[in-house]
Structures are given as structure tokens and as C-alpha cells.
UniProtKB/TrEMBL annotation:
Superkingdom to which the source organism belongs: Bacteria
Pfam families xrefs: Peripla_BP_6
Identification of the protein by name: Branched-chain amino acid transport system substrate-binding protein
Signal peptide: 1-31
Keywords: Signal
Gene3D superfamilies, alphabetized: 3.40.50.2300
Ranges for domain Leucine-binding protein: 35-363
Annotated family: Belongs to the leucine-binding protein family.
Amino acid sequence: MMIISRRNALGVMAAGVLAAAGAGYHAPALAQNTYNVAGMADFTGPYADIMKSLVAGRWAVLNWWNEEVGKGLGIKVNMKDYDTRYDTAQTSSLWPGIKSELKPIAALGLGGPDSAALQQRLPDDKIPLMMATAGYGYAWRAEPWVFNPRATYAHEAGAFYLWYRQQKGITGPLKIGIISSEAAPAYVDIHKGLEKFAAENKDKIEVVETVYTEVQPSDLTTQVNRLLRKGAQVINIQTNTAAVVATKRALQSLGRKDVPILMSSHNGLPASGKAVGGLAQLEGDFEVYGMAIPSADASETRKFYDMLVAKYKLTGGWDVMTMMGMNQMLFTVRAIEAAAKKVGADKVTGEAVRNALFDNTITSAQTFGVLPDLKFTREAPFPLGGMAVNIGTVKDGKYTVAAQNVPVPTVNKW
């Protein structure tokens, strides 16, 4: 694919004007530098039903930045989406062609499959992979080229549990049950991280059991009943909506409304509520993640979203997947912006973008509250300090924010 920059197109036009006006005319120079990023998407795989919102969030932020920030820097960023089907083999297969076609200065990943496929290649390719999700323990390595704007799922859950324990006035350890699966590396990683956190904070957290199920369980009544008999006060499900639905049905059949479910962003309250038959079914349940919650509450993030809808034709709804796309593109273009200011608008490379993440703090104000302040170090692919999460819940049948800027605790590497 040949990508023609606006500068080249204007150069052709200027040449015509110069020929018509004579040699005495000198057209003003318009410096613009064009760079490319690659967008990993899933249009035909397990997340195809929600991918339109995520991609829409990316594109609207990119169009905004090009017009209102990049133009002033003399930069335009183009993007092309590739259907990787949330599949490691597909990502690996497409990557050589993506590099050859785009020569990208950054790539936008979806999750574990992209990280697994590219983690070993990126240092040689010198292309940073920017994610929207929480981090993974198996990717916790020094000198990263994969970047998560959120700490690990265990970090995020740990923040919730310490907050919830305090809110409930629990003096002993909060007892949690985990619903997980060994079918996906990311799922295994989540419960390993939580078990590590609990083992190092025995006075505050106790994992009564980790239940292993199939990826999309249909009936978990027996397993949930066992967790309840062991005293579980919260059930952790950071895997998918199917597990949330099966667990909620089990709790309902057992007559237990006092034990909440904790979810993450990709399987959070609106998505799981839709799957279970209505948001009201999740009254008193929670979600936690390190980005803004798209609730009905007024916020700077909502103002920014509304502006993107009005001026840049954002088609994604006010939902978590749109928010993930916005979060991912916002910290990517802010890194490109910082790199351009450091090395010059005509010298931005993937390595310069990576270095900009280490050398600068991307403030929450720069992302309109979509993300907390981000300060990356060379020790991990996600910020190890200063992180915070937001907690959502369903109260009186309405989706709302339960807490904001809850500090992320220290979770040691597992």
C-alpha cells in the first residue's frame, strides 16, 4: 500500500501554481511528516461482537489528535486495522506483512495473543506494542516493548479487595473465591497473581478456593455452593461474561444476594448484565479497572467523549469497549507527541516513542481522565507505582461509580 502524505500532494499542487505564476513566485513551505500505526482488531473471532466500539474509540481519538494537536506539530498519523482474530498464530502470520507495508512507529494490540506473538520480536523490530488491557504476570519483564496503561488484573483486584474490606469494616481477612479456567494463559495468570497477593497479605485477604471450569461454563451451582460453604464473601471473575452468568444463576438458585461478584472491564457490569438478562440482575456486584468508568455520572471524560461524537463522528457507545479504544489511542498519541517534541517532528521512530514513555509522565489531564497518571519504567510493561483504579457497581438498578482513584497496592512478581 502506498501512503501519500499531505505534504507530497500539496507539493504537486504548488508546482502547478509555480509554473503558472512564473519563476518569480515562491510557494510557502508546509512541513508535514506522516507516520503509521497498526491496529490489531478482532472482526471474526471471539470478540467480534464488541470490536466495533473499541476500534471506533481508537479512530475518533486519532482524528481528534491529528486535527487539534498533530497539525500544530507538523505530524499526521495514519492507521490501518488488521484482523488478528484474537489469535496468536494469526498475529504471528500477519506481522511480517504489517511491518513491510506500514513501517509503523507503534502497534495497537488487543490482549494476551498479541503480546505472546510479538514480545520476543519487538526489540529487534523496534516497534512498541501499545495495549488497552491490564497487564500480565508472564509479560512482567525488564526493558519492555509491550506497554499496558493498567497494572495487572491481580493489582486491580487487590485494590478492590482492600477497599471493600475497609468499607465493610472487616477486621480479619476478606475471604474470596475465584472462578477461573486453565484454558487460557491470561486466565491462569490472573488467579496466580491473586493467590500470590493473598499469600503475602494473609491478615487481609484469603483465597478459599480457585475453581477451574471450562471457558464458557453453563452450570456452576455445585462449585459456587462449595465456595459459599467455605465462607467466600466475594467471588472473583475476571475471565468472561459466560462465567459471570453461570455464577450469578448459581447464587440466585442458592438464595444468596449477599455475596457480590467482582468483574473486570472486558466482562464488566454492562456486558455481563446484558448477557444475564438485564443490569438489575447484578445489583450490588462490582467491576474494577484502571480507567474511567462510563457511567451516567458527569465527568471530564464524558465531556471529551461527547466532543468526539459531535466533531469527530465517534460511533462507539458510551461503554467500556469504546473507553478501552480511547485509552489505548490516547496514551499512544501522547507518546508520539512527546517523542516529536524531543527528537523533532521529522525524526520520530518506534524507538523514540518507546523512550518517550520512559522519559515522560502522561498525565491524567492529557487523557481527559480516561487514565490515571502514567509513569513507565524499564522494570515492567506497566507502571509499578502511583496507579489507581475506579470501581463501578449497580445500585438501585443503575450503573454508577462506587469509588474513584483507589490506590493500587504492591503486588510482587509471580
